[in-house]
Specification:
Helix content is 22%, strand content 31%.
Length: 522
Amino acid sequence: MSLILRKTKFKIQDISNMRLIVLVTFIAISFCIFAQNKDLEKANQYFENFNYSKAINLYKRLISEGENAYYATNQIAHAYQKMGESQQAVNWFNKVLEYPDFDYSVYFHLSRELQKLKEYDEAAENLEEYYKRSGKKLAIQAPTLASYIQELKNDSTRYEITPLAINTRFSEFGAVIYQDKLIFSTNRPLKSITKQEDVRTGMPFFNLFQADVLSLKTSGEATLFSKALQSKLNDGPICFEPDYQTIFITRNASKSANYASELDIFVSKRKDDEWSKNIQSLPIRKSGYSVAHPCLSKDGKLLFFASNMPGGFGGMDLYMCEKKDGFLSLPINLGPDINTIGNEVFPFISVDGILYFSSDGLPGLGGYDLFFSRNVNDQYVAPFNLGYPLNSAADDFSLTLSDDSKRGYFSSNRQGGKGEDDIYAISILKPLEYCHIKGMVTNADNSTPIDEAWVDIEDVNGMKKIRLKTDDHGQFTCFLKKDKKYLLLFRKKLFIDFKGGLIPEDMENFDELVVNIEMQEK
């Protein structure tokens, strides 16, 4: 049987019709691609302007159409993360992991959201996977992240925490001690004929309020701080010059509510008991980025702030400028010991120069945890978590302390509060202080360094266990709490075990202690 090929002869009219069909099809496809690109552009615009709900809806539409599915899925996960909906964020970050070429940073973000849900074991697994893939070192003094978190929770008698009566069902945060008053930022509604709301959240904008401090835990009625310092959008947090005659205010860079995503720091002077309406921005912000959360050192010479300007290590990083003769130096990033892939925000400098700040990138108990770092040789060293109950599974931030560092205020959205963010008074019963232990292990017979010797450190209550190894020079280093007693065990094959101890009296007067150990050969 022969195979017959059917041949068709097209008429001129048929060819014209085909061209029309091809043209219509091309236009339809082009229009579809254009519409999808417009949807993606619009979704990204919503996301950048904090309108996450609308962004999520458009990203979901793109996924249903099979376009930019990985990108849209990742954006949805981050949107839920920024909205504080941790369970939804976890669900969508897990969907991101189903794609073959996902970015390993997803493990980091998934870990943070799991911690907010108190799923600490699963959070630890994901964070350790992130550090494994990134090649970075997990900076904790514990065998595992889970044991580190347990240690933070166990050491729970250092602080007394009390919510303030000025809290409402709205948000209150950023408390600053100003003479005999407490200044803070809140989005509680103002008594006004015109009702102003943030179109992205449906909530009122933030204004600066004040309340008389009657005692650490009690205050008077909250009222508007200054009409002259009130903008149309968000105001706060703030800080003052040491003489209280100059105020630094975080507020929106733009005066338009449609472009309120960028923050800037503004300055006003006080004259004749009134704040000037002539408010100027500091010359440090780059267009398209934010600077926020100003804090001055107690001598007024250093300005600290948070920014997402280019050249950082993550989202928001901490920076410092030197103030001299009325001018500011170029911003200096505080470096990788402080800044992470996440966000570091709300810096505060105590009288003795300790840097306190909030981070969602360092290992902790929940979302944002509070940390502190000391300045050693003009460099802020690796920070320490301030522990429970100051930190919780929620966001804990915006710490400010009295001059004696024994009391202060911080903000949190933890369970049991009145509103989204509440202000809490804190009394520090037992200060958290660390001593830097620098040790060397040598051969007792010839004083040569012993490398790869095991160093086991355990506090007498069994709350903290550290296992270290000496380096090629026989050296080891760690940080120990000054008010704890520790047992130390040194082991090395062919050497007799050496046992020793450290007590608070050995460490209480020193920020650094040198320990030399001599081991006898068997």
